[in-house]
Design a protein that fits this description.
heterodimer, A: mainly alpha, Serine Threonine Protein Phosphatase 5, Tetratricopeptide repeat, globular, B: alpha/beta, Rossmann fold, four-stranded parallel sheet
Chain lengths: 198, 137
């Protein structure tokens, strides 16, 4: 049962996993973007943590919608609307106490919403390249954290088509996409905490 | 960020969204000097922490300041400005949503040409088309 204590653990662990790697994300983004991904995500997720008591008290769908709205308003950059859309769509699609199959299906819907928001597709060196195999693993079996980590590594040889990194063209090849890395961090934190909690 | 006081008329409003507060302000100054006071105009720049970037909250406020019943045309610089502007449009009340557009045009030239068109009472569609003629296909 996903009670208040478990919701709190999930939200807090997920937020901290990215905040603790803010410098690494910034370094990745300095290589191929504008160098603000770590700082932006840290600002947005610290705003989420500031609201942790009230978020943990809400049913999961409402908590996710509220987190999404906070990310939209506080992150800045393109990652605010992208992660905000992801969280808000999950909030719309998930029941209060989701199963693994619910998570796979809801993530599939959320991926479509993120594609529309970012006008991007899978294979363009973005967070989608991590989220899509994770949705597949949730639905068809596999360890989501391991899949996410491998998928983030697999963005290294990709060429960016969307976002600031696309200005670099071939020079974007050879660096891990920062959005793919932050997505992998979130997936790892959530799946480890969920395994303990569910 | 305060835009100049907007004239109460029926012309399309212009919103300028840059990653840089200075670029946003400078672009708005060029529009005012070259086009005059006939167009509702607002600008914003900078992320929610005050660094370079864009903020949905600031864009929502700029749309309010430049709001006109004829609609609002938004000019943006780089990727995040466009994504955040589209997010801001979706967060508007339903009756406004169809009357706000992001123009696919260079920010400075687009803002000046869009405002010039708007100052003559052109429709939102015409304002956008004129700005987008500046864009490479």
């Amino acid at each position: 049962m996903l009670d208040e204590a478990r919701r709190r653990a999930l939200i807090e662990t997920a937020a901290r996993s990215v905040i603790d790697h803010a410098d690494e994300l910034t370094a990745l983004d300095q290589a191929i973007g504008d160098g603000d991904h770590g700082l932006n995500m840290k600002r947005g997720l610290e705003a989420v943590l500031a609201d942790l008591d009230s978020l943990a008290a809400k049913p999961l769908p409402d908590a996710l919608k509220a987190i999404g709205m906070t990310l939209v308003m506080k992150v800045g950059g393109a990652s605010g609307p992208l992660y905000g859309t992801l969280a808000m769509t999950l909030g719309k699609e998930l029941p209060a106490d989701p199963t693994r199959a619910d998570l796979g299906r809801a993530l599939g819907v959320a991926i479509e919403a993120v594609k529309a928001r970012g006008k991007s597709e899978i294979g363009q060196k973005t967070m989608l390249d991590v989220l899509a195999p994770v949705a597949d693993a949730l639905t068809h079996g596999g360890d989501p954290a391991a899949v996410a980590s491998a998928a983030a590594e697999a963005t290294i040889p990709m060429k960016a088509i969307r976002g600031r990194a696309s200005f670099l063209g071939d020079r974007s090849i050879g660096h891990m996409d920062p959005g793919a890395r932050s997505s992998a961090l979130l997936v790892a934190a959530i799946s480890q905490t969920a395994e303990k909690a569910l | 960020m305060n835009a100049p006081v907007n004239p109460a008329n029926g012309n399309v409003g212009i919103v300028i969204v840059s990653h840089s507060p200075d670029v946003a302000k400078g672009t708005a100054e060029m529009v005012r000097q070259m086009v005059g006071e006939e167009v509702p105009l607002a600008f914003c720049g900078g992320d929610p922490g005050g660094g370079l970037g864009t903020s949905v909250e600031a864009i929502l406020a700029a749309i309010d300041r430049a709001w006109s019943e004829a609609g609002v045309a938004i000019l943006v610089d780089l990727g995040g400005a466009e994504t955040n502007s589209e997010m801001a449009i979706e967060m508007q009340p339903a009756e406004r949503q169809g009357r706000i557009v992001v123009c696919n045009a260079p920010i400075v030239e687009g803002a000046v040409i869009a405002a010039t068109e708007a100052s003559g009472g052109a429709s939102l569609d015409a304002v956008r088309r004129m700005a987008e003629e500046l864009s490479p296909a």
